[in-house]
Amino acid sequence: MGICSRRHFLLTICVLQLIATIERQVFDFLGFMWAPILVNFFNIIFVILGFFGAFQYRPRYIISYCVWNTLWLGWNIFIICFYLNVGILDKDSDILNLGTGSFSWWHVNGPGCKAVYDVMEPELFRPARPTNVTDCVLDYEVIEILHAATQCVLGFMAIVGGICLSKVFLEEDDSFDFVGGDDFGLAGHTPLHPITN
């Protein structure tokens, strides 16, 4: 596998991650899920950084992108556990919305979903949460888990691709021979002693 195909692999993963994260960001904005909005924003920044790192042969950018993707993997595993109610996590809690009472946009607007609201007790600053949602083709938990699982797969591939590509870039940097051989990076500078014939 040549350096060009490794670059193209990582660039492709970056583009797919960017598309998937922007799509996820849109639906998190529609549901006012503030913690995911914030984390998605950082992911968009680091994906762009990784893209430019691969495009412009910058191994430090790629390494920071790989470190972020490790954190991103952890976040998405947390999201999967959150919607599966693993351990003490409760999908009905206010962890992801930072106490605003909002909920996943997919909860009410999923494919085929019909929501029933209790209009007897409206709250002024909190969105109306449905009392019952029926006829959903896919429950909102499944949709959120699929989003997170897709990000986990892309994040893992990004880490592997980023490590391979940054290793190649760093090896290439180490083997580079400056003009003059042993000038230790001082090419273009006048020597301290004159050269005589």
Which key phrases capture this entry?
single chain; 197 residues; mainly alpha; two-stranded antiparallel sheet; Na/K-Atpase_Interacting
Description:
The protein is mainly alpha-helical and 197 residues long. It has a domain at 1-92 and 139-173. 59% of the residues lie in helices and 3% in strands. It contains five helices and two strands. The protein has helices at 3-31, 34-55, 59-83, 105-109, 140-174, and strands at 114-116, 132-134. It is elongated, with a radius of gyration of 24 Å.
What's a concise summary of this model?
The protein has 197 residues and is mostly helical.
Write the SSE topology.
Layout: H1 3-31, H2 34-55, H3 59-83, H4 105-109, E1 114-116, E2 132-134, H5 140-174
